[in-house]
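Lab notebook, bench 4. The sequencing result for the construct came back, and we need a structural model before the next group meeting so we can plan mutations. Quick request posted to the team channel:

Model the 3D structure of this chain.
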Amino acid sequence: MHVLISGAAGMIGRKFTAAIANTGKLGPHTVNRLTLADTVEPETPPGFAGAVTNLALDISDPQTAPQLLAGRPDVIIHLAAIVSGEAEQDFDKGYRINLDGTRYLFDAVRHISKTETYCPRLIFASSIAVFGAPLPDEIDDTFFTAPMTSYGTQKAICELLLQDYTRRGFFDGLAIRLPTICIRPGRPNAAASGFFSGILREPLAGKTAILPVPDTVRHWHASPRAAVGFLVHAATMDTGPVGHRRVLNMPGVLATVAEQIEALRAVAGDKAVALIRREPAPEIMRIISNWPRGFAAERATALGFRAETSFEEIIRIHIEDEMDGEL
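Done. Here's the predicted structure in token form:
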């Protein structure tokens, strides 16, 4: 099997690639070739025995997608995007990367399928930002999309494209709406949701963290480990039972900021919680207030997708995966 990963140098891309390298498999399938692409050249994962092509490319360049598909990958994991805060700050860049780059990729597959028997599995990483206020406390699988950010709008458009291209038989597509991934390792990024990770990651490392929203903010989360699991399952599952509706809300953990902090206290004690500083940021609150709070995710769960069941579990996974199991 040949697997293409766009956005392979990002956090989820690196972890997904490492999961393949660790076993040499994607689910039950042996992977003998990887194509890894990003704006910077991704690193070859240690221990992978197959062939690896590392590419530093601009997904918004119309010439990029044909290069990505030159080896006719069997599975395409499309993660490449700029994050919510950056897409809101730079309107042109957001549409160029998140929408145009995705359509170029979809169209490149379509053009190949005109002359060859080629129908790869294509997994698109979407977002719960496709929903907008007013919102119920729990969103079910039939709730309509009405995004209130440029990022959410870009993701929603790509979901529609994926459904139509799949309907036409150009590829076998699935769009998975990821919860906010928490706890993200490494440095903070420009995502409006970045503080959800920061108020846990930094105190666990003995550093001060900034909380820009009230404790009452409630949100939907899953760990990086769960995100990798979502991608593996989406890439290898039988899509027959999914039917025409090729967009799925992923399962996750519903928690308020206060509940996040109490989970941190339970795992790391009062000393860690004391490192959180409250500094209100109205612009972040404006964005977050238009995002969903919770999901039923019944379709995804019935199809075999799994996430954590508590925030303490999410924190302990971060300690295991990023801190060698020790505070």
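Residues 2-179+222-250+294-306 form a domain with the Rossmann fold fold (CATH 3.40.50.720).
Will bring this to the meeting.
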